[in-house]
Amino acid sequence: MEHDYYLSNASPETPLKEFARVAKAAHRIEECFQRSKSEAGLADYEVRNWKGWHHHQTLSLVATWFIVCEARRGKKMDPGHYHPSNPRGNRHDSPRRMRLPPTGTPRPGTKATSSEKPACQVLSLDAA
Length: 128
Fold this sequence. Notes:
The chain is mainly α. Helix content is 38%, strand content 0%.
C-alpha cells in the first residue's frame, strides 16, 4: 500500500474535503505531464537557448491540449467528406459554402436571449 504525505500552510478551519480535492488535482496534473511526455514529446527537446526551450514546451503543451480535446470528443480527427482526386470530377456536386453549426454566441449588433446556452462550459477539477 502506498501513502502520500502533505504539508500545508492552510488555516486550521480548512475542511478535509478541500485538502482531498487539492491532492486529487495534484495527481491529475502529474498524469497530464506524463501524457504530454509520452504523446506530445514534452521531454524530447534538444535546444540551445531558452527561447527554443520555451517554444518547444509551448508547442508540446498545445499539442497535448489538442489530443485531450479530441479524445474527449470521441470522434474521428477528420470527419469531412472525401472527394475524388480529379479536380474536375464532381466539382458541382459539393456545396459551395459549408455552414458551421451555431456556437450560441450572438453576432455583433444582436442581443443575446437569456435562454441561449454559452458557447463553452466551465469544468471543475472534480468533473474530469
